Amino acid sequence: MNFWSGVVEWFTSASSWEGNAGAVHRLYEHVAMSGASMLVAAALALPLGIWLGHTGRGGAIAINASNVGRAVPSFAILVLAAQVWGIGWKPAFFALVALAVPPMVTNAYVGLQGVDAEVREAARGMGMTGAQSLWRVELPVAMPVVVGGVRTAAVQVVATATLAALVAWGGLGRFIVDGTAQRDFVQVFAGAVLVAALAIVTELALAGLQRLVVPAPLRRRRPARERREPFVGLAADPQPS
Amino acid sequence: MRWDWVTTHLDDIGAATREHVVFTVVATLIGLAISFPLALVARRWRWLAAPVLSTAGILYTIPSLALFGLLTPWTGLSRTTAVIGLVTYTLLILTRNIVIGLDGVAPEVREAAAGMGFGPARRLFRIELPLALPVIVAGIRVAVVTTIGLVTVTAYIGQGGLGRLILDGLTRDFRTPLVVGALLSVALAVVADVGLAALQRRLTPWGRDQ
Q1: Considering only alpha carbons, which residue of chain B is nearest residue A176?
Q2: Touching check for B59 and chain A: CB below 8 Å?
Q3: What is the pLDDT of residues A161-207, one digit of tens each?
Q4: What are the structural domains of chain A?
Q5: What is the pTM of this model?
Q6: Which A residues in the span 143-172 are in contact with B, Cβ-Cβ below 8 Å?
Q7: CA nearest B77 in A: which residue?
Q8: Which residues between 211 and 240 in chain A have a beta carbon less than 8 angstroms from any beta carbon of chain B?
Q9: pLDDT tens digits, A49-96
Q10: CATH number of the B3-207 domain
Q11: CB-CB neighbours of B90 under 10 Å
Q12: For B137-158, how does the pLDDT look when each residue is reduced to its tens digit (9 = 90+)?
């Protein structure tokens, strides 16, 4: 059978989509795993990064967190996690949390630090307390950069969740991993298309969210992701997995 | 950890490390050879900059396992598939940093070069590129460190350098090669990053006090 008609047949046959090994269930696993690890990672990383950025403490740690994270291949993190927690959902979950934390800490710190000193002083001069200034002035101004970190982390998590198939967990990566093992390249290609589509949809959705959280009066400026300094920006780039 | 495995497999470990370095160097050099003209085109025709960078950005978003999977109909489970995939991930960072670096050259400097009778090509290679070097090398550092991490994934298509040790350890449930492969790939990334940073300082002696 011709390869491309095989691909068309894969996408049009119900058996590819239904059941516990079907694409719908695999997509659900992929999204659920990515979502759960993003929630836990955000709950850890955002308060920490925001607090460090607000108080100006621990700058070196916050900035370098994502550089150090980049040097450790996500494949290696995942496989090492499998040594600690065995195979299954646990190593995937903990590895994804570990990957998602550094870019969110870095961006939250950089975002809060990037608020003009005059703006903070103006908030103080209007009689705001430290907490009021943080919630009502600094956070809204820093929001695009903070969400930029969430976007970076989410894209990376969705990508790395593909590799979780290597430690015997589900998700869309299963089609690629099983297909490679069985030399079934139609399945590999179909899985790759699904994974690539999910990654691109995640990226576009969060890019849209990032545009939405810019406070209205600041909207006519260029988005924060383009305005940033090259070195800071590089620290916040996702790492392909 | 079984240290006796390490001492009896030094040859394999050395070969895997060499393969890892070769993949990284080849991918980065090809990436530079593609990114440099792309960056020049994006600077010459400004309206092309956005489509060029967003195409590279979309490619960058695709998970590596999926990208290798998308290439298999054409190039199979081969070295070529690995290199094409690795090069693809360097394009965004390299192209963007070359554009940002060249844009950062002060207009007065450019005018001074023109005033001294430099043509566009000589100005680019003698004035603008050296001044842009810190930003370009910063991009190369990120591209190299990223590539070193991604080479490990190519083990899944039968390549992989140190990734083969990791995958081997995983499939045989034998911890030693896995830990050796992971640690060496992190060490390679750190050495490459520090080495390139040192090289950049040597190449741009005028920027040292900054």
Answers
A1: B69
A2: no
A3: 998 888 878 899 999 989 988 989 899 999 999 999 999 999 899 98
A4: 3-12+19-235 (1.10.3720.10)
A5: 0.84
A6: 155, 158-160, 162-163, 166-167
A7: A180
A8: 230-231, 234, 237-240
A9: 999 998 888 877 777 777 777 778 888 888 888 888 888 889 999 999
A10: 1.10.3720.10
A11: 29
A12: 999 999 999 999 999 999 988 8
